[in-house]
Amino acid sequence: YQNLVRSVDETAPESVHLAEWPSVMEEFIDESLNREMELVMKLVSLGHSARQKANRKVRQPLAEAAFSVGNNSERAALLKNVDVVQDELNVKQVRLLDAATEAVSHTVKPLPKQLGQKYGNKFPVIQKAILAMNAEEVAKTLMGGAPLEVKAGGETFHILSEEVEVKAMAKEGFAVAEDGAYVAALVTTLTPELVTEGLAREFVRRVQDLRKTADLDVADRIALFVEASPGLTSAIEAHREYITAETLTKTLSFAAAPKDASVVEDAFEGETVKVGLVKSGG
Q1: Chain segment 119-139, per-residue pLDDT in tens
Q2: What pLDDT, in 10s, does the model give residues 55-74?
Q3: Which of 21, 134, 199, 282 is the most buried if burial means most Cβ atoms within 10 Å?
Q4: What would the 3-class secondary structure string for 221-234 be?
Q5: Count of beta carbons in the 10 Å neighbourhood of residue 13
């Protein structure tokens, strides 16, 4: 506040705590943008849920995230914000699912307690009629919040979502999370290239933690000394440019660290590393 406001406006209050609460400038509110961001946050949250189900760390890049959304405007909003979703989920590609059934299949089970209490001796014919229907269509209707129209015994019944249990099962190669009509499907297969990149990202995290331990300024440049297992060594070599840029490293050497270096040893993803750093001048 002192740098940004007081330095250019001497009449401003001495402290931000003494300033007037700002009034809303409604002309700058973009409701369309707000709706887009709400959708993006919802889809990213579903993507993270799918990651957790697959036991894939966020630092591990994945090949693809695919989504099913509610309508054409939401499809357009997703495609407009592909870069944001891609970055948040650490995936190489984001696309729309051709259909939710591409990544997930559903089973449906009429609930005897709810339907039995409501319809009594008509429950058996209602149950039979529901089970004879296409499970994916039943799931789509109920998960979308609409009642399911069921014709049984010469009558028409409107079945509610809480009266039928819908279970989703991810198809092989996918991890899936759902919320009503919204589906996030992550491709969980890891190629050697993705594994290597994941190792590089894990290594960067260790270096960043070591920078904090060494009490370096965020702008300080460093010299890095690494002794690592073969797999991690290959990953560091393959992603040397990314690693040095992220960690402000001027020189990266595969050698023992000098005596005055800050050093840490660690093991992760089946690899081991001993890394040291010193502040680099210039």
Answers
A1: 999 999 999 999 999 999 998
A2: 999 999 999 999 988 789 99
A3: 199
A4: CEEEEEEECHHHHH
A5: 13
